[in-house]
Amino acid sequence: MAVETVGHSARGHFSLDSPNQPTGVGGRQPNYRKNRPDGGRKPGTRELFGRLALVTFPVIGVVGGGQLARMMAPAATALGFELRVLVEGEDVSAFSAVSTSPVGDYKDLQTLLEFADGLDVMTFDHEHVPTSHLRALQDAGVNVQPGPDALVNAQDKLVMRAAIDRLELPNPVWAAVADVAALVTFGDETGWPVVLKMPRGGYDGKGVRIIESAEDAAGAAEWFESMSPLLAEAKVDFSRELSALVARTPDGEARAWPVAHTIQVDGVCDEVIAPALDIPLEVAAAAEDAALRIASELGVTGVMAVELFETPGTGAGFLINELAMRPHNTGHWTQDGSVTCQFEQHLRAVLNLPLGATDVLGPVVVMKNFLGGDNQDLFSAYPAALASEPAAKVHCYGKSVRPGRKIGHVNLVGATAADVDALRQRAARVASIIRDGRVPAEESPRISEEKA
Ligand SMILES: Nc1ncnc2c1ncn2[C@@H]1O[C@H](COP(=O)(O)OP(=O)(O)OP(=O)(O)O)[C@@H](O)[C@H]1O
Ligand SMILES: [Mg+2]
Questions:
Q1: Which among 279, 283, 291, 384 is least surrounded, fewest beta carbons within 10 Å?
Q2: Considering only CA atoms, which of 353, 354, 358 is closest in space to residue 342?
């Protein structure tokens, strides 16, 4: 048996296919219950629980136990949904936050099938479940959201680039390159440097490298040995990076949050400013439209982030970088800065429920990540951090501290967009106190400089 069939709840051991699940509910209702392996019928519920049989809430299963799964838990709790998470081990972020979190390997189909038992919908914390497993789950009647035909565009950057071309949306110049010689040909034709990417499996800039020149290309030989073809892209001369965040239901209802400005440091999201300030209205509208169109044309369900390069004065004013089909680091600001946060919206969307309003709760919202540093005892810094900024909302992922690892973030809603720099400094100060375990020296800490 690949999946442990009991949870670790303080309420004691219980089967993953717990008996207090309901039969169907009426109204605007997705037909996911009939997809349950038991056809939606639960034996003896009414007899066992009497009036509790009227409690008919869905069960959502999330594959992957990172911080994204963890941050779905408050939304599930508020709405009364049951959340289960298939975790990679007991040390991952979601394990301590979700009472039913069996340990299992998401690359093993049998494990996924066992985890699917009793779920109304299966969704994801990451994009690494093999596409063939997703299709097999669907064939077995599991309600997988987003489905494999959509998700493959977030799993494979070559598939994504071809889809963006098909939709006639703005791509950087790109090509699939099978070896060093093809990379050199691409670079000579489009100009150096070239950005070389692993089509599958990358995250946080791992799987992305800049090839400066034809001479430098030979250094990429080992990458071609591990995967071929790779994706070669022209290095885009962008003014800033943006994120267009949307959500869509299986029935096709869709909503967008305002486009946000995202700041990457060493390929890792460091800071987000939402809405993106001073963005031309037509660029923001076109970016939002592009994201909604991608969601609709590719059949995306749940939350999707479209990462963009802002390129003033050229074409639409932006190029598309990549797609993420799940809540995304560039959408964490919505937790404290929007009427509906991305985690709640994701759950609503995959359950085919009406979506929540995406209005922003202030003129500007800043999200600042903190990565692992020297301080192992994060809580020791809480008194100083929380006292320094009572308006800050701290989100900590319960992960052990390793240098460079994403371990939490701080959200801060501003009163006016004019003082965004001060707001960024205040958020960065809270983050640095927690990361370093001490209050910075007298003067305000420098906020990280934006690359690009
Ligand atoms: N064609 C390009 N031109 C210029 N910079 C690029 C290009 N592609 C990627 N980058 C830079 O590298 C970063 C990481 O690239 P990308 O988003 O493709 O990788 P990733 O590892 O999948 O990222 P994520 O952390 O979002 O999963 C981008 O945010 C951007 O800063
Ligand atoms: Mg990216």
A1: 384
A2: 358
The identity of residue 364, as a single letter, is V
Of 195, 206, 330, 405, which is best to mutate to test ligand 1, by the most ligand atoms within 8 angstroms of its C-beta? 195
Whose alpha carbon is nearest atom 15 of ligand 1? Answer: 205
| Cα 17 to ligand 1 centroid, rounded to whole Å | 41
Amino acid at 278: D
Task: Indicate if ligand 1 lies below 6 Å from the C-beta of 321.
Answer: yes
CB of residue 241 inside a 6 A radius of ligand 1: yes
Does residue 393's CB lie within 6 angstroms of at least one atom of ligand 1?
Answer: no
Cβ contacts of residue 16 below 8 Å, gap of 6+?
3, 5, 6, 7, 84, 100, 102, 114, 115, 117, 118
Torsion-angle region of residue 242: left (phi > 0), alpha (psi -120 to 50) or beta? Answer: beta
In CATH terms, the fold of domain 173-234 is Dna Ligase; domain 1 (3.30.1490)
β-strands 59-63, 82-86 pairing: parallel
- Say how many Å lie between the CA of residue 208 and the centre of ligand 1: 7
> What is the Å distance from ligand 2's center to 322 Cα?
6
What CATH number has the domain spanning 240-436? Answer: 3.30.470.20
Q: Which part of the chain is CATH 3.30.1490.20?
A: 173-234
Count the neighbouring beta carbons within 10 Å of the beta carbon of residue 87: 25
Contact 128 CB / ligand 1 (< 6 Å): no
The more confidently predicted of residues 145 and 267 is: 145
Mean pLDDT value across the chain: 89
pTM of the model: 0.88
Structure tokens at 319: 């190029």
- Quick one: pLDDT at residue 54? 57
CA dihedral of 332, 153, 312, 257, whole degrees rounded to 10:
-30
- Give the pLDDT confidence of 152-206 residue by residue, as tens digits: 999 999 999 999 999 999 999 999 999 999 999 999 999 999 999 999 988 888 8
Separation of CA 205 and ligand 2 centre (Å): 7
The answer to whether residue 438 scores a pLDDT higher than 70 is: yes
Residue located nearest, by CA, to atom 27 of ligand 1:
203
Tell me the H-state helices in 191-280: 214-217, 221-226
Whether domain 31-144 has CATH 3.40.50.20: yes
**Residue 307, ligand 1, Cβ within 6 A:** yes
| Closest CA to ligand 1's atom 19 | 205
Nearest CA to ligand 1 atom 30: 267
Q: pLDDT (tens digit, 9 = 90+) per residue, 69-85?
A: 999 999 999 999 999 99
DSSP secondary structure string for all residues of 101-134: --B--TT-HHHHHHHHTT-SEEEESSS-S-HHHH
Decide which of 350 and 47 is more confident: 350
